[in-house]
């Protein structure tokens, strides 16, 4: 696989070498994996961290200041700094875990039949915005995503019927 002079112990020591330096003579690392997301190596750390779902400008700045590393290019990080960066990002809820948490919260709102859950089910804005002339984005999503619309309509109809039954009792 690797045929170079003096590479007898290369496969056994490659992980140690990568952790120390993250740059091999014949191979350059293109991007790093932090928080189950590939972050680019040609951007500054603060901007590169914002590619992770759940890490914004403030959280990225907070992570960098807690680690005490400067805001330099991602490719200039050492292996130790990269590992500490991974550990620091893993303390927060990011990526797929955050998406599952938010989806679970929305499902819980629909299950308890709250107003916000009903608005989410109908794919309408749920924070008091007007819908006569605005909410274009939500309406476009409803038109584009026909399969989701039928599911949300079914849920909305079920919730309406359930509310009517509760009022009759």
From TrEMBL:
Gene Ontology cellular component list: mitochondrion; small ribosomal subunit
Domain of life: Eukaryota
Official protein name in the record: Ribosomal protein S13
Pfam families found in the cross-reference section: Ribosomal_S13 (PF00416)
Composition skew (Basic and acidic residues), residue ranges: 158-169
Organism in which the protein naturally occurs: Erythroxylum novogranatense
InterPro entries in the record: Rbsml_uS13_C, Ribosomal_uS13, Ribosomal_uS13-like_H2TH
Family as reported in the entry's similarity comment: Belongs to the universal ribosomal protein uS13 family.
Keywords for the protein's UniProt record, in alphabetical order: Ribonucleoprotein, Ribosomal protein
């Amino acid at each position: 696989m690797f045929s170079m002079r003096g590479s007898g112990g290369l496969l056994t020591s490659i992980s140690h070498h990568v952790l120390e330096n993250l740059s091999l003579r014949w191979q350059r690392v293109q991007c790093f994996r932090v928080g189950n997301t590939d972050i680019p190596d040609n951007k500054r750390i603060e901007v590169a961290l914002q590619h992770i779902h759940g890490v914004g400008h403030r959280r990225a700045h907070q992570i960098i200041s807690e680690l005490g590393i400067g805001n330099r290019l991602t490719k200039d990080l050492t292996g130790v700094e990269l590992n500490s960066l991974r550990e620091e990002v893993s303390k927060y809820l990011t990526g797929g875990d955050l998406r599952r948490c938010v989806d679970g919260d929305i499902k819980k709102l629909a299950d308890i039949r709250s107003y916000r859950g009903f608005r989410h089910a109908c794919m309408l804005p749920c924070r008091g915005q007007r819908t006569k002339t605005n909410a274009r984005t939500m309406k476009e999503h409803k038109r584009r995503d026909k399969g989701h619309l039928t599911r949300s309509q079914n849920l909305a109809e079920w919730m309406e019927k359930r509310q009517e039954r509760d009022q009759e009792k």
